[in-house]
Amino acid sequence: MYTFDEDYFLTQFKKLLAIDSTTGQFRAVQEYLAGEIGRLGFPVSTPHKGGLIADLGGEGSCLAVTAHVDDIGLMVRHVNADGTLNVCPVGGLYPFYCVTENVRVHTRDGRVFTGAVCRTPNSIHVTEEELRGTPGDFRKNVCVVLDEDVKTAADTAALGIEAGDMIALEPRLHVSNGYIKSRFIDDKANAALLLAAMKAIREQGVKLPRKVLAYFSVYEEIGHGASVLPEEVRDILAIDIAPTGPQQTSDEHKVSIFCKDSRYPYHYELTSELRDAARRAGVDYVTDVFTPHYGSDGDTSIAAGHDVRHACIGPGTSNSHGYERTHMDGLRNTYALLMAYLLG
């Protein structure tokens, strides 16, 4: 009944991807979302630390639906003697998933410099045999090389680059045969999906059977995204990626209902409600368990001491925290389950 506006979804996904938002660098993406949500006609409030909470209407027991818009990335740790940048990860980014990636370095005074993540030595043809198999390590043999004529630490410092500057990876979005490949499907694809749901609610005059808040968090990748919640919230539903793998039931064409992750089991009764909603609506879903390295903003709310039920759903996604891939089918099923649950 409430059709997934895929053109709007893709437009919003592309716009969110175009905004660098390594965790902590949230202002630009927050301002964009505030404008788009305002255009949709929903009132917005802002937690002091950052993020956005939109009131979608309805009355009664309050549900918060959350998706995050912060990205994993890098930070300048120090400038090397040759002018390259020693870097450290922000969020769960590993060298083997970002070496050779193009990046943008953001200084605190607003300048942006391009570069690439490189191994040192950086050419396989002049690398000794014993070094070829050495794992990449941000501390020892992986750096950012700037697209600038710099030869010394002083040259780089003269550009205004210093320790603590944020480094964003290029997303490289590619859509083919229904498959979506990009960095930061986690979680900008689901943030765009939530915007699409909000658009349907507004344009089609959906009457929600309970009060619903849409919460766009900006610190999920480092573990405290939805640690702040309005007191009225009784349930929180995170929309996040469902990593695929050899022992996972998650599938890029389906929506996963999370039963447990590396922190906690999800609330059994709320998870059962989502499962029932999926069955009633004919949604192609699976249930799954994600260990040993997964957590969501629902977990964050529980860890912060909020008296809420928590759950998480999302499209099956491969290559998590790397060059990720999902399928429009998985997003369609995630949207269908979200709308089925919201409408009761």
Helix content, binned percent: 25-40%
Query: Which descriptor suits the 3D outline?
Result: globular
Characterize the main sheet: 9 strands, mixed
Radius of gyration: 21 Å
| CATH class label of the largest domain | Alpha Beta
Proportion of β residues? 25-35%
Number of helices: 8
Annotated CATH homologous superfamily of the largest domain: Zn peptidases
H/E series: HHEEEEEEEHEHEEEHEEEEHEHEEH
Q: Count the E strands.
A: 18
Looking at the structure, the CATH topology of the largest domain is: Aminopeptidase
Q: How many angstroms separate the termini? A: 14 Å
**Count of individual domains:** 2
Describe this structure in words.
It is built from 8 helices and 18 strands. It has 2 domains: 6-71 and 184-343, Zn peptidases (Aminopeptidase), CATH 3.40.630; 73-169, Elongation Factor Tu (Ef-tu), domain 3 (Beta Barrel). The model has no long low-confidence stretch (mean pLDDT 96). 27% of the residues lie in helices and 27% in strands. Helix 1 crosses helix 5 and helix 6 packs across helix 8 (328-343). The chain has helices at 6-17, 27-40, 129-132, 153-158, 185-203, 268-281, 297-303, 328-343, and strands at 44-45, 52-55, 62-68, 73-79, 85-90, 102-106, 112-119, 142-146, 166-169, 174-176, 179-182, 212-217, 233-239, 242-243, 255-260, 285-289, 309-317, 324-327. The protein is globular and about 65 Å long. The strands form 3 sheets. Strands 1, 2, 3, 12, 13, 14, 15, 16 and 17 form a 9-stranded mixed β-sheet that branches. The relative contact order is 0.19. The longest helix is centred in the middle third of the chain and has 19 residues, at 185-203. It is an alpha/beta fold and 344 residues long.
